[in-house]
Records
---
Amino acid sequence: MIYHIVPRTDWESISGDLYRGDTLESEGFIHCSTAAQVADTANFLFAGREDLVLLQIDPARLTAEVRYEDGGDGRLFPHIYGPLEKSAVVRVTEFRPGEDGRFSFP
């Protein structure tokens, strides 16, 4: 599976069948494929945010190209080049930090 963290309002405001993040259309968007990547990314980019959802994406349902690329620390992150079809999202989960303010994989 591929995971993507997004503000709930961004996800709920999508009209049509395609999600286009800030850079998804032009240069792709880095996603996560492991629990550790999800937690690390959330704690680095979204510290203290309470308005997030975690999308679980089935790569077999994507028509866009997926490449696994080095995130700079030797770990491979899935990189989706093109729009994300809503039909590829198989689960949406509320994603909030714990009492200590840090995120962990739900």
---
Amino acid sequence: MSDHFLLAQDVCKTYKDEGKKVKAVDGVSVGFKKARSTAILGPSGAGKSTLLHILGGLDKPTSGRIVLGGTDIYKLPDKRRAYIRNKRVGFVFQFYHLLSEFTALENVMMPALIMGQGAADKGQNVRGRAAGALKLVGLSNRMGHKPSELSGGESQRVAIARAIINEPEILLCDEPTGNLDSKTSESIYEILFDLKSRIGLSLVIVTHDEQLSGKTDDIIRLKDGKIA
């Protein structure tokens, strides 16, 4: 798997539920190549979201390794792992997690500002990059609007723009259209695949939508925490 820049190696995640141990992820080994799209499919409770969170550095596995660009990220100190997560990985969730008091543009700027970017020029460069990201997702005309003034599809597009502001190598998407109607869902997937082609992003999309599997380069099927 030397040509894979993100690797899961024998990853397990165990939780305790009413005193019993439950393996949400059970010995998963899988690799992801640059600039390819992968669908992670499976029924509810299969471990899809847990695996995605582990891949992105959000949830430490009980055992096993996650190697990103040759680095075992869970051997790093928390602050270093958080920096790598913020710089090299973008996240798009089912719920948009936009800050209600800020505009679309300000929401997109947040990950860059958190990294300390923009101090030298009072955020002008970050503001320009955020505007460019919103243009990529077709929201140049909604930059000054707050989340309450946006539709669900527009809110998700803002979330996608926010996920790419730091120019990550991979975008991890957890049921990104779970709250949207079929027509809007299709437009969101079009944006994601367009970004993959345009800026060379790797896409990993957790979904139960079997139709999506026909659009991605690779498919991983999970059942009971294992690759089926």
